[in-house]
Amino acid sequence: MRLGKISDSVLKRSVLQQIRTKRQEVINGAGIGEDCAIFAPSRGFASAVSQAAVVKEADMARALVKCANNLAAAGARPVAFMLTLLLSQETEEPQLRQLMTAAEETCGLLEMQIVGGHTTVSRHVDCPMVCVTAYGVPIQDDLPMVTTRGAAPGQDIVLTKWIGLEGTAILARHNRERLRERYPAHLVEEAAGFDRYLSIIPEAASAVKSGVRVMHDASEGGILASLWELAESSGVGLTIDLRKIPIRQETVEVCELCEVNPYVLASSGCLVLVADRGEDLVRQLGREGIPAAVIGCVTDSHDRLIYNADEKRYLDKPAQDEIYRLGL
What we know:
Elements: E1 4-5, H1 8-15, E2 26-28, E3 38-39, E4 46-53, H2 57-72, E5 76-87, H3 93-110, E6 113-121, E7 129-138, E8 156-160, H4 165-174, H5 176-182, H6 185-192, H7 201-209, E9 214-218, H8 222-234, E10 237-241, H9 249-258, E11 270-275, H10 278-287, E12 292-299, E13 304-308, E14 311-314, H11 322-325
Parallel strand pairs: 5-6, 10-13
Antiparallel strand pairs: 1-6, 2-3, 4-7, 5-7, 8-11, 8-12, 9-11, 10-12, 13-14
């Protein structure tokens, strides 16, 4: 496509016509000449930003889900996205339409609306890039937003679903043939489809309604990075039982083949919660079909300790995510 803003005809048929999900909180959304989204008044407001290369539809879906997760982990109900798409000159219109179709399908699953943005062709990018800005409002007017600060000694640390979901899906797709040489096809395809677990919106909403006021979504750097960040933000210590951290067998097998540490692997889809009565929260989430486990507790020390049977070690500062180490 030619440099600069895409034409109105391309914008209409390959961008705007793909946007179908609507929210009542949006008064004015995406359209030709519309440079500002207008929202209905709210007692609170939250926003989050992410960016990613979006060569394939799955890349677009992950970028949107990760941004929505940031809002959910703050106790917000994600409502809308604004998308800035930077396209290379080699990008063809069918690819743009496919990316927008993936974006709209993701919005349908998340019940969010694309309210605007910008789409342009630049000589400075080698592949399509997206910058996502997500907007959210309080889950309920009488419930506050939450942060990663405020964890107190004696509280339990709860983890939802399983670690390494995002990274496992990426690794499985990139190494599909190698994995099939060692493992059954159904295991490989299950791992490659872990993207379906990446949204934390349901468990975050349930936790906030249950009184949880400290949450953090696990993403880049894996579960170990997320635990460090939560402890650092609250200025507390942690004691974690490594054996209680939930992990899927598919993740174990994929990480073994790819020589990857699953505890330092992209873990979107996994939410870290701090609760006064962790087991009660686990049972509440279980009643809603959300797996969860108590993996440790907050301490009044600044030590961040990880136990694995009789072995004890200190939690290190976040390391580079294994996905980046592999160049993916």
